[in-house]
Write a structure and sequence with these properties.
heterodimer, A: mainly beta, six-stranded mixed β-sheet, five-stranded antiparallel β-sheet, B: mainly beta, seven-stranded mixed β-sheet, three-stranded antiparallel β-sheet, 50% strand
Amino acid sequence: QKEVEQNSGPLSVPEGAIASLNCTYSDRVSQSFFWYRQYSGKSPELIMSIYSNGDKEDGRFTAQLNKASQYVSLLIRDSQPSDSATYLCAVNPMEQAGTALIFGKGTTLSVSS
Amino acid sequence: DVKVTQSSRYLVKRTGEKVFLECVQDMDHENMFWYRQDPGLGLRLIYFSYDVKMKEKGDIPEGYSVSREKKERFSLILESASTNQTSMYLCASSPMGELNTGELFFGEGSRLTVL
């Protein structure tokens, strides 16, 4: 059974701090990795994708991938109250694109002002 | 922008009723998916489809069926609704081939309550 594991949280950080969200996956052949943000009562929206080892930065968000350790993380710098949401890690379990993603259960982030 | 539209945002049905959840996408995507989301369990894949009239079981297909008669429409059917099917249902789509980055585009969700 291919699995994606996340700490459920809640993760609480003060405004302006760095929030660090972690994810591990079980399938070594996985090639593409995604972070979705989901506000309460809303559907998931993609915020970051990463395909190769290392860091990928987009504004205040940095995704980090280490395929040898089967680990992917999301750093949110200068956290804002508007970042309070559930963050879902998702993995494409096959080498070709177009397959269904496997999702972790999500980490709830709370940013206090 | 990709638009994935789910026909009903909120539904209340009775045990034993037949329930149809409709999903339409306007970007000519080949792939369509149905997930359900429950607290503490995350998103779980019910069924997906790579082409018209084609379907594949996901992780939790029991109690569900699907229909894809047209490329843009993917329907989820609960033949006889039960209380344990009370959940948020999310439809998603993605393109095939070179256009595919792995990203799924989600609809707004359909919250189903079975009494």
